Amino acid sequence: MNLFAAFAETVARRRHHPAIFWGEAQLTYDWIAQRAAWLSRALAKDFGIQRGDRVAVWLKNCPEFPAALFGVWRAGGVVTVVNNFLKPEEVAFILADSGAQVVITDHSLAENHATLAALQPELRFLRVEDFGALAEADAAVPAALTHGELAALLYTSGTTGRPKGAMLTHGNLLSNVRSCFTCLDFHEEDRLLVLLPQFHSFMFTVGTLTPLLKGASVVLVKSVSPFKHVLDDIIHRRATMLPAVPPIHRALAGLPASVELPSLRLCISGGAPLPLEVLRQFHARFPKLPLIEGYGPTESSPVATVNPIFGTPKAGSVGQPIPGVELSIRDENGNELSDGTTGELCIRGPNVMRGYWKQPEETALVIRDAWLYTGDLGHRDADGFYYITDRKKDMLLVNGINVYPREVEEVIHRFPGVKDAAVIGVPDARRGEQPLAFVVVNEGVTLDEKALHDFVREKLADYKVPRHFRVLPALPRNATGKVLKTALRELAVAADARLK
Q: Residue 115 CA to chain centroid, in angstroms?
């Protein structure tokens, strides 16, 4: 079984069922299947794509995105997913690293095509606007890809250097999708709202593959600004599920009482830690609508844990392992730690990537004895629920004592008027490191730094308390809402240089 074969089974069963809602358009499974067939023929006959060749998909959110995926897989190729927010020079690195010579793209990115072509003259572009030539589609038998063959290269964000391509097989992604069927109680009648970028692993699996391999529908949001567009799509298309990042759930929690979202049955938070204060506000606004947090890095396809829908979820926890997946908390030497002890989260299961593309040394650092060492710190409680403390690289050492920024951020979020917060470590000659907080306040609020300092000091040990709170209009975030702490560190260095 491979991803295209699984999709073909769904199409045979749900051919005329709505697959994608896009504005006023209602597109069927047959619509996707026809375009995938045309693309498959074009890749094989016109571009010479053979089994195992990499084909880049560089698109903004659009209905053609899944057609591109299934068309590449039908032709036997490997999808190289490209972040559409990247500049041409960054895209050029990914294309060169993956060896992709064909780029599936569209007119909205056309201004970058010339720059990219100048950097890599051998590149060939295939635009989704050409997918309409359906008469040229043939009935050629698709490549019989196997469970263990490479399906996709999903490149990591590259916050600590050049991005690395996580090698995900057909088996990796299929196992993750099938686990999502179970733990999210997915039904063919569900309509899943997608407003985050489809290129991101969260939406790639949960927002695209899962609903389309189940036979459900995707409500694809054309624009998230203003936020009214999102609400219109939820209400008009009767969306039942919303996977999103914490800022979206915060926005929902702030809706006036007159706004009702009766069709939603489940909200899922992922991509970044969900602050407890946001969860509290959400439940106060929508007491009968579950908001469950899950967790997983790109390297695990990506879902690894989720809070139970029918059991009792735990606030602050990312839940329990999904079906077929194991988690373990380990120390620096790979020894398993007891419940309640903080260590590195490790994942084992059929969803774990094969490794990093062309980087055996990097692969050996993160995959040991079949366990994926995630770089995330956390612990497990006695009931088997997991909690994320922080990233190893974000942990501070103040006088040799561990300080986890997320713990400090959670307290700052509780201060009246605070909308968002992030904590980083800055060098300190006496203590080694010192916490520095960046804060975003609600409109019309003036931050009383002393009052905030006292508030935090009442609740945390002195060495955890930031000495300074810097107000920003907004925190720098990536396309899926994760705070870019590298950018905050650069701001801190620049400010320090000005003071000197």
A: 28
What is the domain range of residue 321? 3-380
The answer to whether residue 225 sits within a structural domain is yes
CATH number at 47 reads 3.40.50.12780
Q: What is the C-alpha to C-alpha distance for residues 318 and 194, in angstroms, rounded to an integer? A: 21
Indicate the residue type of 397. L
Same domain for 115 and 79: yes
Does the model's pTM come out above 0.70?
yes
Does 389 reside within a domain?
no
Query: Do 126 and 151 sit in the same domain of this protein?
Result: yes
Tell which residue, 169, 196, 148, has the closest CA to residue 301: 169
Residues 270 and 128 in one domain: yes
Q: Does any domain span residue 390?
A: no
- Are 362 and 433 within one domain? no
Q: Which of 347, 380, 413 is the last residue of a domain?
A: 380
Contacts of 115 (CB under 8 A, 6+ apart): 88, 89
> Strand 266-269 relative to strand 241-244: parallel, antiparallel, unpaired?
parallel
Instruction: Name the strands in the sheet holding 355-356, side by side, starting at the edge strand that comes first in the sequence.
Output: 124-127, 102-105, 54-57, 78-81, 150-155, 165-169, 355-356
The answer to whether residue 194 is domain-embedded is yes
Cα(194)–Cα(192) distance, integer angstroms: 6
Number of domains present in the structure of the chain: 2
Q: Which two tokens stand for residue 411?
A: 């307290």
Per-residue pLDDT tens listing for the chain (500 residues): 899 999 999 999 999 999 999 999 999 999 999 999 999 999 999 999 999 999 999 999 999 999 999 999 999 999 999 999 888 988 999 999 999 999 999 988 888 888 999 999 999 999 998 886 654 556 555 667 899 999 999 998 654 467 899 999 999 999 999 999 999 999 999 999 999 999 999 999 999 999 999 999 999 999 888 899 999 999 999 999 999 989 899 999 999 999 999 999 999 999 888 999 999 999 999 999 999 999 999 999 999 999 999 989 999 999 999 999 999 999 999 999 999 999 999 999 999 999 999 999 999 999 999 999 999 999 999 999 999 999 898 999 898 888 999 999 999 999 999 999 999 999 988 889 999 999 999 999 999 999 999 999 999 999 999 989 999 999 999 877 889 998 999 998 887 756 54
Residue of 71, 22, 478, 20 whose CA lies nearest to 208: 20
Whether 202 and 75 share a structural domain: yes
